[in-house]
Amino acid sequence: MSYDPLNTPQAPSTPPAPSASHAPGTTDAPGTADTAPEAPHLDFAGSTPYEDYVHADVLTHLQELRSEDPGEMVFLVTTQVMELWFTVLVHEWETAARALREDDLPPALDALRRSRRELDALNASWLPLAGLTPAQFNSYRGALGEGSGFQSAMYRRLEFLLGDKSAAMLVPHKGTPRAYAELEKALHEPGLYDEALRFLARRGHPVPPSVLDRDLSRRYEPSEQVEAVWAEIYRGDQRGEEVRLGEALTDVGELVWRWRNDHLTATRRAMGSKQGTGGSAGVAWLEKRATKSVFPELWTARGRV
Question: What is the pTM of this model?
Fold first, then answer.
């Protein structure tokens, strides 16, 4: 009789007994080799590839606390996390602006959509600080000295990209050459909204020369003609590329507005109407900032559709 492995009755399989080196509850000693294909590499000649790429040791040892209050660590790390998100957003919006300059809309929309999720993450960074009482903040506020988020170079680059420019905002950074050079360059370059309007003009929309040829080192001011351009776009095909661009920019504008208002709320809870650490009017200054719309005509045009 021939042997047929497919039809031969099989005995119930039983798992192999664990070897002594893999008995339940035991693990390999650090640095020992494991022949199992799924075992991670543990022994490296230098630092780990993860460390070489992420520089986690640098990131997790940047915190130089100046008070004995345990809450200072949360405040400092949260602020540093925000700086990293500012860096990501500047990268995304510069990517979008470059793509618009090259009339390549899909990668511009991709970058704007990514930044929407990243803005959500940035805004969530306020959560650890949102419930600070004045007494809790006062316990380490002195450690800040005259330090203020107003002095953040990366946040200033972010604001420049959004069209809120002022040469005076370079002054605090004259002592840090790299930050100053980057800000000076950004001051004179088209922002994200400038590139969007130039893109629309090249597609035949009547964006006025006074907007296209404006002094880029100055704050963007709303234009009735630009409002009319957006209103006409929004009356058209809702699936069209220009509408999709408008909505992607509107999402960015809305989430930046939410960030400003979360900043205002956290500050109001933590210090009331006191003067800000950087010498600003504190809450009063933030209230003024919170009322400003990002990409203003994208909001006002909706009343004309």
Answer: 0.85
**Cα separation of 99 and 70, whole Å?**
45
58-84 per-position pLDDT tens digit: 999 999 999 999 999 999 999 999 999
Burial of 288 (0-12, 13-18, 19+ CB in 10 A): exposed
pLDDT band with cut points at 50, 70 and 90 for residue 50: very high
Are 90 and 157 spatial neighbours (Cβ–Cβ below 8 Å)?
yes
Are 158 and 86 in contact, with CB atoms under 8 Å apart?
Answer: yes
Assess contact for 179 and 210: CB atoms under 8 A: no
Ramachandran sector of residue 282 (left: φ over 0; alpha: ψ -120 to 50; beta: rest): left
Q: Which domains does the chain have, with CATH numbers?
A: 68-302 (1.20.58.480)
Provide the CA 93 distance to its chain's centre, in angstroms.
10
Q: How many CB atoms neighbour CB 45 within 10 A?
A: 4
Where do the H-state alpha helices sit in the chain?
A: 49-54, 56-59, 71-101, 105-124, 134-141, 153-161, 177-188, 192-202, 209-212, 224-235, 241-271, 283-290, 297-300
